[in-house]
Structure formats: structure tokens, C-alpha cells
């Protein structure tokens, strides 16, 4: 059931997120349009940072590719370093590797440099969006294997799929789309009512 969270349920910048125009091989949603617009990007960061208040971490681990944008911005604001977790075959240093399957059903490999941090390091994992949770689970594994501590998971949106919901039960999760809001319901249905009036020009830099 929808829970009215007042202004928190009405984050104006969600309306800038683009629908898929390329068909089922692609994600249903493209949040990157939020990044284009200075006001939207700053408001998104401010909302996430407000909810991260009290969450302690030593480094932000950003997931390839779009988690780099959000993760690096949050790391800079919180004055910590940034650790890229990359799709396989890109890093020219020693790496640890996991396989994961994401929303597309494709199995891919993901790598993190080895070593990346000392045991006990607190890592905040950031990705743009979580659907099945497969990608995030892979990143959690990589951190655990180097004896890091996952201090939280951050994304713009996380669908209430079974594995993603399990992540909410087992970790501190901060998402711009708040659980039990109308945006969350729409996200679960993989269509936003704002798509009907979507205009790419609304996201243009001011
Ligand atoms: O929860 P899952 O089902 O695993 O899917 C979520 C992943 O898919 C999207 O990225 P994508 O792989 O499309 O790559 P991109 O970041 O390069 O756009 C998203 O940013 C997550 O990384």
C-alpha cells in the first residue's frame, strides 16, 4: 500500500528520468538524464547524502558503469576515496573476479583490483539502479572476499524483486526512490507515470 511521505514522495527530478525507446534488450529506465541537469543532480545528491547521515564508510565502491558517476560524486562530497568495480577485462592490474547475472539474463564478470584495501575497511557500494540485485550481490562478494565491510548500498532506484528485497533486509540501503511510495510502485511495474509527458529537453543544462 502506498504510504504518503509528503515531499519525499515528490522528488521533482524523478520526472526527468527517460523511458526506454530501444526495446526489450535494454533497461526499461534511464536515470542518467538526471545527471545532465545541474539542479536535478545536486538535489539527488543532497537527498542521498541526507539519508546517508550517520552511515560511516572509508571508501565508496562504484559499480561499472553508471555507478561511477553517482559514486564518485558522493565520495567527493563525503571526502573519501573512490574504488571502481569494473566489468571484466578493463583493469590492467591484479584483480579478483566474480560472475553475476543481471536483469538482461546475461552472465558477465566483474572485477576489483587485488588488493584494494586493508581488512576491515568500510565500503559503501553505489550503483545507479538495482533490479534483480545480481550485480550488487557480485560487488558485495568482491568486498567480502577482501575482508571489507559493506557499510551500505546506494542507488537511485531499487525494485522490490525478491533478491533486491533481501538486500534491504540484510544491509543498510539508501535509495532516492523511497520504499512504499507511488514512485516505488511504478518502479516495480517498470513504468513511470511521468513517461507520458517525458520531454528530453526538460533535462537540458540550465
Ligand atoms: O540488479 P541487476 O538486475 O543486476 O541490474 C542492475 C544493473 O544494471 C544496470 O547497469 P547495466 O549493466 O545496464 O550497465 P551500465 O551501468 O553500464 O548502464 C544498473 O546500473 C546496475 O548496474
TrEMBL record:
Report the PANTHER family cross-referenced here: ADENINE PHOSPHORIBOSYLTRANSFERASE (PTHR11776), PHOSPHORIBOSYLTRANSFERASE DOMAIN-CONTAINING PROTEIN (PTHR11776:SF7)
Family from the record: Belongs to the purine/pyrimidine phosphoribosyltransferase family.
Q: Please provide the record's keywords in A-Z order.
A: Cytoplasm, Glycosyltransferase, Purine salvage, Transferase
Domain Phosphoribosyltransferase residue range list: 39-186
- Metabolic or biological pathway, per its Swiss-Prot or TrEMBL entry: Purine metabolism
Subunit structure, as described in the record = Homodimer.
Where does the UniProt annotation locate this protein?
Cytoplasm
Molecular-function annotations in GO: glycosyltransferase activity
- Please give the name of this protein: Phosphoribosyltransferase family protein
Amino acid at each position: 500500500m502506498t504510504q504518503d511521505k509528503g515531499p519525499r514522495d515528490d522528488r521533482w527530478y524523478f520526472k526527468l528520468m527517460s523511458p526506454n525507446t530501444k526495446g526489450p534488450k535494454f533497461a526499461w529506465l534511464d536515470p542518467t538524464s538526471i545527471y545532465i541537469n545541474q539542479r536535478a543532480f545536486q538535489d539527488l545528491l543532497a537527498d542521498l547524502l541526507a539519508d546517508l547521515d550517520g552511515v560511516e564508510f572509508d571508501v565508496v565502491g562504484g559499480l561499472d558503469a553508471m555507478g561511477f558517476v553517482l559514486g564518485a560524486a558522493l565520495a567527493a562530497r563525503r571526502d573519501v576515496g573512490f574504488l571502481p568495480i569494473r566489468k571484466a577485462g578493463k583493469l590492467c592490474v591484479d584483480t579478483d573476479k566474480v560472475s553475476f547475472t543481471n536483469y538482461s539474463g546475461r552472465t558477465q564478470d566483474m572485477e576489483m583490483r587485488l588488493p584494494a584495501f586493508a581488512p576491515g575497511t568500510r565500503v559503501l557500494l553505489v550503483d545507479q539502479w538495482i533490479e534483480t540485485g545480481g550485480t550488487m550481490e557480485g560487488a558485495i562478494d568482491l568486498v567480502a572476499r577482501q575482508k571489507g565491510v559493506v557499510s551500505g548500498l546506494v542507488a537511485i532506484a531499487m525494485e522490490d524483486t525478491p533478491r533486491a528485497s533481501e538486500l534491504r533486509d540484510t544491509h543498510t540501503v539508501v535509495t532516492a526512490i523511497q520504499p512504499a511510495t507511488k514512485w516505488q510502485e511504478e518502479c516495480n511495474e517498470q513504468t513511470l507515470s511521468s513517461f507520458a509527458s517525458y520531454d528530453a529537453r526538460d533535462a537540458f543544462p540550465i
